Amino acid sequence: SALTLFLSFSSLLGKIWLMLIILLRMAVVVLAGYPLYQDEQERFVCNTLQPGCSNVCYDLFSPVSHFRFWLIQTVSILLPYAAFSIYVLHKVAMYIIRMHCLVHGCKGNKGLSSPKDLKELCRSAVVNRLDCGADNLSVLNFSGAYTVHLFFRTLLEAAFAAVQYFLFGFFVPERFSCYHSPCTSTVDCYISRPTEKSI
Predict the structure, then answer these.
(1) Of 1, 28, 40, 148, which is most buried, counting CB atoms within 10 Å of its CB?
(2) Which pLDDT does position 30 carry in this prediction?
(3) How would residue 166 be classed by pLDDT, with cut points 50, 70 and 90?
């Protein structure tokens, strides 16, 4: 039917979208972020010769490496999807065992498990709305798990955006003023390529 075609097309678009998001994010982080931030501390120039002052100011300016932060963000965003994929694989495997149990009457299944275990599988509610009867077979529905997975991914995205804002802000300043021991006075530090980094 048209609804089935639409749902299969939507799931295909969802998979393509997910892969593009992963690949594009990794490409931006690795190909653009790493070259831009690999020499960040070396090019963080402060107008002082006080030993240790530049290091302390850089630590105040960037408490976490941007590049490492984005790598942790990317991996964390993938965790809900990995959990959802494992859940789907588990449910599908159990569904196949249940179908095998229904077709063969839970007897003589040497390759799967003992007949007693398979009868228990048939009695358990592993698959929603599926009883041990061939007329009651239904299609597995993962919409609830998919919604939960999307909720956690969205929550993680929002949390990382908030952490990014509180750690770094969304714009890189041209000059960073710092007064912290061992600096004996207010020190101005200059960041390399601030406009490119803000973009």
Answers:
(1) 40
(2) 84
(3) very high
In a domain, 45, yes or no: yes
Q: What does the block give as tokens for 177?
A: 């003023």
Q: What percent of the chain has pLDDT over 90?
A: 15
The residue segments making up the domain with residue 152 are 1-102+142-198
- Phi/psi of residue 177, each to 5°? -95, 135
Residue 161 token pair: 């955006």
**Rounded to whole angstroms, how far apart are CA atoms 57 and 177?**
8
The answer to whether residue 11 sits within a structural domain is: yes
Q: What angle do CA 70, 71, 76 make, to 5 degrees?
A: 95
- Can you give the pLDDT at residue 126? 43
3-state helix, strand, coil in the chain (%, to 5): 65, 5, 30
Q: Distance between CA atoms of 55 and 179, rounded to whole angstroms?
A: 12
The domain spanning residue 23 has which CATH number? 1.20.1440.80
Under the banding of pLDDT at 50, 70 and 90, the label for residue 27 is confident
> Is 122 a domain residue?
no
Query: Which bin fits 5, alpha (ψ -120 to 50), beta or left (φ > 0)?
Result: alpha
Number of structural domains the chain divides into: 1
Alpha-carbon distance of 7 to 131, in angstroms, equals 25
